[in-house]
Amino acid sequence: MYCVKCGVELADSQRVCPLCGTRVFHPDIPRTPADPPYPPDERVHPEEVNRSGVCFILTALALLPAVICVLCDWRINGGILWSGYASGGILLLYVLTVLPLWFERPNPVIFVPLDFAAIILYLLYIDLATGGHWFLTFAFPVAGSIGVLITTVVALLRYVRRGYLYIFGGALIAAGGLAMLLEFLLNLTFGVHQTFFWSFYPLAAGVLLGVMLIIIAVCPPLRRSLHRKFFL
């Protein structure tokens, strides 16, 4: 006879497991009517976390340093100088990490573009505060393109149950194209180079890997062979 909880071997006369303390139920040993038919559930169940309470605490912890930064900056400099960057960074971090916690099942198709919108607004504030000229010609198209690509991939993975290899293959090819867009905007905004210099390498790697994934997707025998060998 063995313990139903820890599996240790027991003598027929034992009524309690000497290792874990679980009561022994032997079919040949008579039980009183008050005994339960199965061992009681003695596992410790953690109490459910109050989601709203945690979110309120995190919100207060985010607002407190932001307000302190603004008040200190206003007191010392008579205006908002450096505190805008600090408060904006705290707000951005709040949107990226705490805001989804308010929802039981946050939809990434909604929150991913919301996160990139918050990033774009923060970059716009930095551009306006520093008197720069790089937001419309560099930051906005780069962040927007990356946000559109990631949102598209997340939406396809969430709502399309098949064709993952096509999705990742197309995403790699698009990522290579984004590298060329990044270098083009760098040259246009900051005059780093006159022609394309380094973006051909990530473009070639993205196209090569993406085409390989698409070939694997359209060739079932190759896909099954890779699955057997590498569990892919």
Automatic annotation (TrEMBL):
<feature type="transmembrane region" description="Helical">
    <location>
        <begin position="110"/>
        <end position="128"/>
    </location>
</feature>
<keyword id="KW-1133">Transmembrane helix</keyword>
<feature type="transmembrane region" description="Helical">
    <location>
        <begin position="82"/>
        <end position="103"/>
    </location>
</feature>
<feature type="transmembrane region" description="Helical">
    <location>
        <begin position="53"/>
        <end position="76"/>
    </location>
</feature>
<feature type="transmembrane region" description="Helical">
    <location>
        <begin position="198"/>
        <end position="219"/>
    </location>
</feature>
<dbReference type="Pfam" id="PF13240">
    <property type="entry name" value="Zn_Ribbon_1"/>
</dbReference>
<dbReference type="InterPro" id="IPR026870">
    <property type="entry name" value="Zinc_ribbon_dom"/>
</dbReference>
<feature type="domain" description="Zinc-ribbon">
    <location>
        <begin position="2"/>
        <end position="23"/>
    </location>
</feature>
<keyword id="KW-0812">Transmembrane</keyword>
<protein>
    <recommendedName>
        <fullName>Zinc-ribbon domain-containing protein</fullName>
    </recommendedName>
</protein>
<dbReference type="Pfam" id="PF19845">
    <property type="entry name" value="DUF6320"/>
</dbReference>
<keyword id="KW-0472">Membrane</keyword>
<dbReference type="InterPro" id="IPR046283">
    <property type="entry name" value="DUF6320"/>
</dbReference>
<feature type="transmembrane region" description="Helical">
    <location>
        <begin position="134"/>
        <end position="157"/>
    </location>
</feature>
<feature type="transmembrane region" description="Helical">
    <location>
        <begin position="164"/>
        <end position="186"/>
    </location>
</feature>
